[in-house]
Amino acid sequence: MASTIPFHDAYADFHDDALKYDFITEISPKIWKISRKSDRMEFLAHDITNEIYTDVPGTAFMMRGALGNLLSIDGESLEEQIKAILKHPNLMSFVESFAMEITYEGQRGYQYAFTVWDYCDAGNLGNLLIPSQPRPQDRDASPDIKPEDDDTEMKDASGESEKQESSKFLPESFCWHVLTSVLRALAWLHDGVHDLIQKENGAWQRLGGEVDWQPMLHRDISPQNIFLSHPRRREWYGPVKLGNYGRLFVSGHCQPFGDKQMPTSSKVLAPPPDKEFTPLQDLIAFDTKHGSLYPRQPNQPYTMVSEYRALGEIIQAMMVEPTCSQHVKMIQAQPARVNLQDLNYTGRLKNFVVKLMEFDPWHKAAGKREPNPLHATTELYREALLGVQWFMDTGNDEADNLVTPQMAEYEDFLDNSKLAGDQLFDSFKNVQEILEQFK
């Protein structure tokens, strides 16, 4: 099959869905930024032609590959099911796929296949976690914490630490924003809960989560896979989306409601991220051996706890000023309490990050009747939302001036309502003036 031909032929023969978009520029090999004609919304188009079709050696024919059989753009397709799963405000959503024919002058045309994805125009979180300038040496990675301090609750930073510029990196409001955004995405992947809303009486209601959901583990939560968008109104921060599903694992092995089995034989287990497949019985055996050890052992199964810890490491990396190119690895080299103890953030945020690193809903602790993994991620998300509410009421300058997306959206609604009211009043006055002329 011929190599990919850059799209610049104004007379290319599109398929119907391709007519919706304008191709803007190729931002990396096989990745195009495109614009939807109807509203100028920008997306990413990924050329998957070589994944859809493969050459048949010794012939001029092409055969549909594994991805082609999954999407089957020109036949039966699982595309709608995939879109339903990967459609969430905090996930890089799969929008659709289309095919188009591209030709050069005097040459045979080739059909190219594209998948369309969300586009985050502010890059990824990893771009923010780099040193501002070269350092003579890295931070000392040796732990400086006493064993008896393991269960000590973290406090707000003292007044002296507030004067230290190095005791705080990214704004606390941004840390909460990323934390709640990624937890909301994980609540969908883990529990099938789309969102939480708080009623007037203070009770929380889950949206979704009532169907027979197959838990999914992302298995690649890193700063480079958390994508950012610019704000669209007056809000401080734009949407945050978790992306890159190359290691995503769909598990049919989970603990259903009322299941009294031992935790290790009923919780969601997946192979380590660097492995494609491990027999379930081996995963159970390794989980029985290792449990939730941290750092993770080479053959230790990947679980929801692994996802919590990956997110906890990232939030720590947002709070500690980077001093080297391997910033996240430096964070991993020390206990969370050591990384956070002298930072100028609220104790509420620091304690929640510590909980992410230590929380295990399957652990049968003293005084705990049985493991409680049901909607565990959703409960963490709810607790984080309560943390944001608490932070907004702290009265510090950052919290007082913060404009959330919900606040900006409500302001837009009020402005539009006032504009509509003014227009209606002007129309009424015009009608009155016209009627006055006929008196």
UniProtKB/TrEMBL annotation:
| Domain Protein kinase intervals | 1-378
Q: Broadest EC class?
A: transferase
InterPro entries named in the record: Kinase-like_dom_sf, NEK_Ser/Thr_kinase, Prot_kinase_dom, Tyr_kinase_AS
GO MF annotation, one = protein serine/threonine kinase activity
Q: Ranges of Basic and acidic residues compositional bias? A: 136-146, 154-166
What's the Enzyme Commission number for this chain?
2.7.11.1
> Positions of the region Disordered?
130-166
PROSITE patterns in UniProt: PROTEIN_KINASE_DOM (PS50011), PROTEIN_KINASE_TYR (PS00109)
For this protein, the record's SUPFAM superfamilies field holds: Protein kinase-like (PK-like)
Q: Which UniProt keywords apply?
A: ATP-binding, Kinase, Nucleotide-binding, Transferase
Catalytic activity field: L-seryl-[protein] + ATP = O-phospho-L-seryl-[protein] + ADP + H(+); L-threonyl-[protein] + ATP = O-phospho-L-threonyl-[protein] + ADP + H(+)
Tell me where on the tree of life, at the top rank, the source sits. Answer: Eukaryota
* Function, as annotated: Component of the EKC/KEOPS complex that is required for the formation of a threonylcarbamoyl group on adenosine at position 37 (t(6)A37) in tRNAs that read codons beginning with adenine. The complex is probably involved in the transfer of the threonylcarbamoyl moiety of threonylcarbamoyl-AMP (TC-AMP) to the N6 group of A37. BUD32 has ATPase activity in the context of the EKC/KEOPS complex and likely plays a supporting role to the catalytic subunit KAE1. The EKC/KEOPS complex also promotes both telomere uncapping and telomere elongation.
Under the subunit heading, UniProt states: Component of the EKC/KEOPS complex composed of at least BUD32, CGI121, GON7, KAE1 and PCC1; the whole complex dimerizes.
Q: PANTHER family in the record, alphabetically?
A: SERINE/THREONINE-PROTEIN KINASE NEK, SERINE_THREONINE-PROTEIN KINASE NEK2
What this protein is called in its record is: EKC/KEOPS complex subunit BUD32
